[in-house]
């Protein structure tokens, strides 16, 4: 075949193939279209809005808890936003804040009630608008929590903290007989009570006292004061107690660390040398609390795991709002997550302090 004829034939074949291909184009386009339509558009990642309402943002334990919660949120910034409200100890204010959060479209709300006996308005509102609520730290009664299946509680068992505090105090009394300064075989004590009607106040005191009595110690109560979990209030109250009872105070049983630290402030302020201080025990294991244990100013404290509570709350929020499975924490009765307390003494206080700071 001559070159000219081969070229003519090739060109003819190319045109035929081209024509055939061109003919297939509509089919090709139709298939493409079908594929594109059949494949669902990728859902854009859902971003949820989480509202948090605290009873008092200046409460040391609560502010540490919120800081931890915030740390968890930072790692999932693209999936959630948060708004934080401080009720400044007014239930009325908190009710309004929750209403606003619902109006602003919050998908989940975490509430640290001001008055744990008055959650009705919040529950009614949340239920009406279908917004689940995770209550934390200030425990509402079971009856209220069971009023709707989308209400939860994250916290701890108050009695356990009292028991552990009693153990620390009893062990310290046994190891240091000089705690019984007047040698009358009885420990004269005062109680710094957190707050009227708070589950962690009444129960902690009761279990601390009973644990000490069960350990065989004799106790004599000199008095008790209410200091609302607050360091400054405790300092003022303890100064007055020092004026009243002087060296007779052998043990200060405080419902939390901040008030125990207030007691220490009072002894320092009164310029009373360390050897004359009573045994002081706290609860919470806050950063300043752990430091006071390390410095030997406090005999011990009980670790109230606010990091664990924040992480549990976060996992629960993700489960509710983002439909994620719960992995580390388990809901008891479909409602409760409770973190255990732990004893903190000079021997292990550093470990707890580090846990807080990392
Ligand atoms: C307790 C804690 C206190 C205070 C209180 C507020 O669990 O020990 O320090 O934070 O909660 O409700």
| Integer-rounded radius of gyration | 32 Å
Strand content: 15-25%
- What's the helical proportion of residues? 40-55%
Could you give a short account of the major beta sheet? 6 strands, parallel
Ends distance: 85 Å
Helix segment count?
A: 12
Mean pLDDT: 90
Query: Which strand order spans the largest sheet, edge to edge or round the barrel?
Result: 2-1-3-4-5-11
Tell me which ligands are bound.
beta-D-galactopyranose
Order of helices and strands: HEHEHEHEHEHEHEHEHEHEHEEH
Shape, per Cα inertia axes: elongated
Going by helix content, strand content and strand pairing, the class is alpha/beta
**Record field, number of beta strands:** 12
Task: Characterise the protein shown here.
The structure is a single chain. With 358 residues, the protein is of the alpha/beta class. 49% of the residues lie in helices and 16% in strands. Helix 3 (91-103) runs parallel beside helix 4 (120-129), helix 6 (158-175) runs parallel beside helix 7 (199-214) and helix 8 (231-245) packs across helix 9 (257-269). Mean pLDDT is 90; it is low at 1-22 and 28-40. The structure holds beta-D-galactopyranose. Residues 59, 61-62, 137-138, 200, 229, 256, 283-284, 304 line the site of beta-D-galactopyranose.
């Amino acid at each position: 075949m001559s070159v000219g004829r081969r070229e003519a034939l090739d060109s003819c074949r190319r045109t035929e193939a081209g024509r055939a291909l061109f003919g297939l184009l509509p089919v090709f386009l139709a298939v493409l279209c079908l594929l594109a339509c059949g494949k669902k558009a990728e859902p854009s990642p859902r971003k949820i809005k989480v509202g948090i309402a605290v009873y008092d943002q200046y409460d040391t334990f609560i502010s540490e808890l919120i800081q931890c919660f915030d740390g968890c949120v930072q790692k999932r910034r693209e999936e959630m936003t948060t708004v934080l409200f401080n009720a400044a100890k007014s239930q009325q204010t908190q009710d309004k804040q929750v209403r606003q959060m619902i109006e602003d479209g919050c998908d989940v709300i975490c509430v640290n009630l001001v008055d744990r006996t008055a959650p009705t308005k919040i529950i009614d509102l949340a239920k009406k608008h279908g917004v689940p609520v995770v209550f934390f730290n200030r425990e509402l009664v079971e009856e209220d929590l069971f009023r709707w299946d989308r209400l939860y509680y994250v916290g701890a068992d108050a009695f356990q903290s009292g028991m552990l505090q009693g153990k620390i105090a009893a062990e310290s009394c046994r190891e240091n007989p000089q705690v019984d300064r007047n040698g009358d075989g009885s420990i004269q004590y005062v109680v710094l009570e957190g707050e009227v009607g708070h589950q962690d106040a009444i129960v902690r005191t009761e279990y601390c006292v009973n644990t000490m009595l069960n350990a065989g110690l004799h106790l004599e109560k000199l008095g008790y004061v209410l200091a609302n979990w607050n360091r400054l209030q405790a300092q003022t109250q303890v100064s007055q107690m020092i004026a009243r009872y002087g060296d007779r105070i052998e043990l200060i049983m405080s419902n939390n660390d901040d008030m125990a630290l207030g007691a220490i402030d009072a002894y320092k302020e009164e310029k009373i040398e360390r050897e004359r201080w009573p045994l002081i025990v706290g609860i919470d294991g806050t950063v300043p609390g752990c430091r006071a244990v390390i410095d030997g100013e406090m005999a011990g404290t009980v670790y109230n795991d606010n990091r664990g509570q924040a992480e549990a709350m976060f996992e629960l929020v993700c489960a509710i709002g983002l439909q994620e499975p719960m992995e580390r924490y388990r809901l008891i009765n479909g409602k409760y997550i409770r973190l255990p307390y732990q004893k903190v003494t000079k021997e292990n206080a550093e470990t707890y302090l580090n846990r807080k700071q990392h």
